[in-house]
Amino acid sequence: xxxxxxxxxxxxxxxAGGFWWWNAGNSPETLLKRGQEFLSQxxxxxxxHLSLRLEAGGHREFGWLLEGQILLHExxxxxxxxxxxxxxxxxxxVLQAAALAxxxxxxxxxxxxxxxxxxxxxxxxPKNTDAHRGLAAVYYDLNAMDxxxxxxxxxxxxxxxxxxxxxxxxxxxxxxxxxxxxxxHYEKALQREIALAARExxxxxxxxxxxxxxxHAQALEVLDASSxxxxxxxxxxVLRAEALRGLTxxxxxxxxxxxxxxxxxxxxxxxxxxxxxxxxxxxxxxxAVSWLQKAVAEDPGDFxxxxxxxxxxxxxxxxxLAKDQLRKVEELQKLYxxxxxxxxxxxxxxxxxxxxxxxxxxxxxxxxTALADRFDRNARHLSxxxxxxxx
Length: 391
Hints:
Blueprint: H1 2-25, H2 28-40, H3 44-56, H4 60-73, H5 77-84, H6 91-107, H7 111-124, H8 129-141, H9 145-158, H10 164-175, H11 179-190, H12 196-212, H13 216-224, H14 233-246, H15 250-263, H16 269-281, H17 285-298, H18 303-315, H19 319-348, H20 353-365, H21 369-382
Helix pairs in contact: 2-3, 2-4, 3-4, 4-5, 4-6, 5-6, 6-7, 6-8, 7-8, 8-9, 9-10, 10-11, 10-12, 11-12, 12-13, 12-14, 13-14, 14-15, 14-16, 15-16, 16-17, 16-18, 17-18, 18-19, 19-20, 20-21
């Protein structure tokens, strides 16, 4: 009898252990994590099956969070935001929902909505890298560069192994005309963890900074560390040609430009302008004219291209055309001066919709349609209330 009772105890213990294992393996936390893993592998069907299973099992917020992440993956951004806003009870889930909703808002260009989500996330968790990363992107889009740099620095402080925040700071400083300081951050990015594709992009951006400082030999050193192959081949060729031209190695530079022109079906204004420069450098002004004409036709706001075209016209005795280009250069100078003033105003008042509208109009006059659209969108969203995330 005693042996029988002992056997019963063992069976019950095993059954209880099995019941614990089954429930632990099917807890809402486990199912959510498994669904997120499926989604990261691109298995949307399996992830959606688990989101439905969570809802059917009474764990609605877990299911909504997972389904919101699936909708983000499928680029159904408005639907994802609507669903993620329903997550309001469990704090851990709310924080995840805020981060995901912030990403959705960024994807649709709604910077105010994104700011609301990431600021909420930061208030709840000051050490949250997603919050700082998201706010860095928000303020970059708003042109509030001081705040963008601050949040990138916080991101870098919280995760010193990640090279991405330093790359982002380098990009901001390069665009603000501070290439020397940008170089410091690009080099820090390369010393840290960063995806292979992004590492190649960082090297090319670092090269641009050296070129802006007329450090052509240093630019070539950076390019030598890059493979120069794949989707970035064209950019690599143009940058290397520019560096070689700066060292007066015109024949070598021309060979690279020739290769770039064979790759580009529709040459970019930068490539066209570089070809024109090389022709001017080698006293072929007449040939340079046609290339530079194409460059400014493709990019009417190209200050450098128009200046070079005026030189080409002058060297070929076309003085009236040269003067006309110089007049257009002066007009562009005024627009760029106005844009610089507006940029500083936006940095000071990033939420002033009227300034964003002025900047959009200025970009449009310069032919920079994508930037004009971005600032128009910012102004529209800044003038409207954005829904919040959280309880």
